[in-house]
Structure to design on (313 residues):
């Protein structure tokens, strides 16, 4: 048994000078850098995937069935609504009220000249209408 | 285990506190031993260097978590044996192919004979169970004592002896049959 042990120890005997430590360390550093780059790439790839996945999830979660009244008119089967509209239900003073409110808003928020322009055009419009009526 | 000087621990502590140069010093200090270990097993300088690179890469990744509970040389031997075990598993088929090529070259050249014998031996070792293989490798390539082997492998001294005995018996059978 001992002879056999000596035989196999002899078989594994190898004499050779080891690699140069400086070049070995340089190679090791190169491998470490490569490894770091690979890790970075994997990490950024994963975060990109996670971002896309998140955006996708948020987008799909917004897909809800639209209520009927939000459909376009063109999608409505019947065109009955066009002709059955009762215009008398609209408030006739609405426009005036709207212009007054809008004027106040303009005075508060914008340039005075813009407001003056608004008055001018409004009066011009009204006068034109009156003239038209008087004619 | 004789080279386990306190310097190793100092270098590791310095590395753990962020000094990269200490790692280079550690590599310089242990390179010849690690390379020699792999050269005896592989018989090829290039492969031995590649495996040594693998060992130091693993060491670089894990050294920051080293807790100084076992000696550094034991830790390094553990990495060596794990690396060589995976190399043997990876190259089982390759070794068989190499053996076939060697038989075609004839037996006139003595160096070829020696190489043939070596390959036969490592082919035999690769066929052993992992525990036996590890014990044999440590014993024949680094002439470690059973106590040191038990520290590295985590088995008892008695178990290391038994495993070694079985491994040698099995190897004798394999090599005599071949």
């Amino acid at each position: 048994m001992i002879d056999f042990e000596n035989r196999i120890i002899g078989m594994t005997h190898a004499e050779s000078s080891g690699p140069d430590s400086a070049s070995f360390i340089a190679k090791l550093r190169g491998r470490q850098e490569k490894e770091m780059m690979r890790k970075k790439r994997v990490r950024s790839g994963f975060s990109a995937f996670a971002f896309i996945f998140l955006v996708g999830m948020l987008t799909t979660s917004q897909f809800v069935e639209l209520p009927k009244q939000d459909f376009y008119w063109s999608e409505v089967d019947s065109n009955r609504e066009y002709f059955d509209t009762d215009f008398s239900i609209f408030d006739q003073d609405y426009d005036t009220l709207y212009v007054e409110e809008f004027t106040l808003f303009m005075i508060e928020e914008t340039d005075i000249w813009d407001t003056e322009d608004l008055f001018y055009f409004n009066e011009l419009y009204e006068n034109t209408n009156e003239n038209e009526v008087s004619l | 285990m004789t080279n386990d000087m306190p310097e190793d621990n100092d270098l590791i502590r310095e590395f753990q506190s962020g000094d990269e140069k200490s790692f280079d010093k550690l590599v310089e200090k242990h390179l010849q031993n690690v390379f020699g270990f792999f050269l005896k097993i592989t018989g090829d300088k290039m492969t031995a260097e590649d495996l040594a690179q693998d060992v130091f890469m693993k060491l670089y990744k894990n050294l920051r978590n080293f807790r100084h509970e076992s000696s550094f040389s034991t830790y390094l031997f553990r990495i060596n044996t794990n690396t060589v075990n995976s190399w043997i598993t990876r190259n089982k088929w390759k070794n068989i192919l190499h053996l076939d090529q060697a038989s075609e070259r004839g037996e006139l050249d003595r160096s070829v004979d020696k190489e043939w014998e070596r390959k036969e031996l490592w082919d035999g070792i690769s066929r052993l169970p992992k525990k036996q293989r590890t014990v044999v490798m440590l014993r024949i390539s680094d002439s470690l004592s059973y106590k040191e082997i038990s520290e590295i492998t985590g088995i008892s001294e008695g178990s290391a002896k038994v495993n070694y005995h079985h491994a040698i018996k099995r190897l004798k059978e394999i090599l005599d049959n071949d």
In short: Chain B has a mean pLDDT of 82. DSSP finds nine helices and no strands in chain B. Residues 10 and 22 of chain B are 9 Å apart (CA to CA).
